Amino acid sequence: MAEDLVLDTAIRDWVLIPLSVVMVLIGILRYFVSKLMRSSPVPDAKTVKEGQVIIRARNLKAGANFIPPKSFRSRRFYYSNEENGLLHVPKGQGTNPQAQMFSDPNMAMDMMKKNLSMIIPQTLTFAWVNFFFSGFVAAKIPFPLTQRFRSMLQNGIDLSTVDVSYVSSRSWYFLNLFGLRGLFSLILGDENAIDDTQRMMQMGGMGFDPSKSLSAEKDGLDIHQHDWALPRFELRAESVLRKLVK
Amino acid sequence: MGSSEKGSKDVMSDIPTFSVENLQNNLKVIQNSRTFLSIIAGVLAGVIGFTGLTGFVFYFVVMLITSVGLMAKAGFSADLYFDSWNRVLFDGFLGGLMSFVLFWTFAYDLVHIF
């Protein structure tokens, strides 16, 4: 069981190297195709306004300690009072994102495009690997693993006597799929990685609800503890100056 | 390694004031240098022919050297550029491992197996 298998050099020249190169090239192709297909969404005035209000409220919260308590309170009132505060959402006016998505075909179209640009190349490559390279050992990982990993690494080979560290070509494809992510983030810039995470978010959240984030921001402002920092800065400046004089 | 931009932080103040964009940029630089070095380390380990535990030890050593290098780049005062030391030491550690294993296997197979 422990004796070494001799692998044909033709496997290296015609399977291992081409497979890896193709994976890299397909990743790059996918990036550019999805970049071409990405349509810039037409901003809706209301959405943009709400987003800007949220950003302003966040800035207020971040810089709260640098303004006097009175100023902070008046600004907070401006944002979160119950009558006409910017962050106050009247009950029953929040739009349902699900309904909004179905009424707006562009949104669904956009999501479908994104998913397709992800799924199609992967399916195609997997089918290609399966068709041409199935059923033999293509590589060997340089560290021992337990039997548990057999199904992961020797996908497509039904021999229980081969050492687990030998990798079938189909599993080499999966290794490439996960391991090349780092390389892509280097050669394609971070846009690639961000795109992926955004896609995940979209899948999970199915669009975001502006009124919900508005009220969340309002709650955050309401419970924010104001602690004016500037009086202590005078003491600090004094100590710094004294140190300089010494 | 890219240049780390200076986060606008008041050194002696007890109130943390960060420029979020600069912080994010610094973290991105760390991430990129770690990924890059893990790929390089993988190829190196494969060509030299490390197997088993030695390879992983090699990865840890390289990551340690990276940490030291990043700290030297930050002038050994990480709180100027990051919100905590852990960022310099551990960010991108596991993400690089996958790339390392892939390139280690690839180079090892090309050089030693066939």
Automatic annotation (TrEMBL), chain A:
Origin: domain of life: Eukaryota
GO cellular component, one term: EMC complex
A family per Pfam: EMC3_TMCO1
Main location: membrane
InterPro entries: EMC3 (IPR008568), EMC3/TMCO1 (IPR002809)
Membrane topology of this protein: Multi-pass membrane protein
Database matches in PANTHER family: ER MEMBRANE PROTEIN COMPLEX SUBUNIT 3
Family: Belongs to the EMC3 family.
Stated name of the protein: ER membrane protein complex subunit 3
Organism in which the protein naturally occurs: Microthlaspi erraticum
Lineage: Eukaryota, Viridiplantae, Streptophyta, Embryophyta, Tracheophyta
UniProtKB/TrEMBL annotation, chain B:
One Pfam family in the UniProt entry: EMC6
Record bears the keyword Disulfide bond: no
Major localization listed first in the record, in broad terms: endoplasmic reticulum
Superkingdom per UniProt: Eukaryota
Keyword Membrane among record annotations: yes
Transmembrane stretches, start-end: 35-51, 88-108
UniProt keyword terms in alphabetical order: Endoplasmic reticulum, Membrane, Transmembrane, Transmembrane helix
Xref: PANTHER family: ER MEMBRANE PROTEIN COMPLEX SUBUNIT 6
UniProt similarity note: Belongs to the EMC6 family.
Protein name: ER membrane protein complex subunit 6
Lineage: Eukaryota, Viridiplantae, Streptophyta, Embryophyta, Tracheophyta
